[in-house]
Write a structure and sequence with these properties.
This protein has two domains: 2-68; 71-142, no CATH class. The protein has helices at 2-13, 17-24, 28-36, 42-51, 57-62, 70-86, 94-101, 109-142. The radius of gyration is 26 Å and the shape is elongated. It contains eight helices and no strands.
């Protein structure tokens, strides 16, 4: 279990044991004792689960499953997907935007191809307008 605790410390604080001890309210010495010992008592586990709700209790206790509770992984995947789709909002139809608002983030590959094409067209149009404005400004300076 101490190996799993060490892995979780790496996840939670990038391996900073003093910071981890501070977060959970333990002394660094107490944390080191747990990491070196063979067994960790129930009270420290309860503290960990209280301070870190994303920690999978089966994983820390038994080594079964993933370190993070499945609901946390699903939430992270949903957020990453939402962030991926967010950049396409300016070129989405009203119907597509309503789907996103409703939580439907399952768009097919053809839709992403369409959005990328529309974004590229917007960028090209913006660059063309900028180039034209810059050329006009340059010609006005010459006069």
């Amino acid at each position: 279990m101490n190996t799993r605790l060490s892995q979780f410390i790496d996840y939670a604080t990038g391996g900073n044991r003093a910071e981890f001890a501070r977060i959970v309210g333990w002394s660094p010495q107490y944390l080191n004792t747990m990491l070196k010992g063979e067994r960790i008592g129930l009270n420290p586990i309860v503290t960990l689960l209280d301070k870190f709700p994303e920690l999978n209790a089966r994983w820390i206790l038994l080594g079964e499953g993933a370190m993070l509770a499945p609901s946390v992984d699903a939430m992270k995947q949903h957020l990453f997907r939402l962030l991926e789709i967010e950049r396409y909002l300016p070129v989405m139809t009203a119907e597509e935007q309503q789907r996103v608002v409703a939580g439907d983030l399952n768009f097919d590959e053809a839709t992403f191809v369409k959005w990328n094409s529309l974004l590229a067209a917007q960028i090209a149009e913006r660059e063309a307008r900028f180039a034209a404005a810059y050329a006009r400004q340059k010609s006005l300076k010459k006069e």
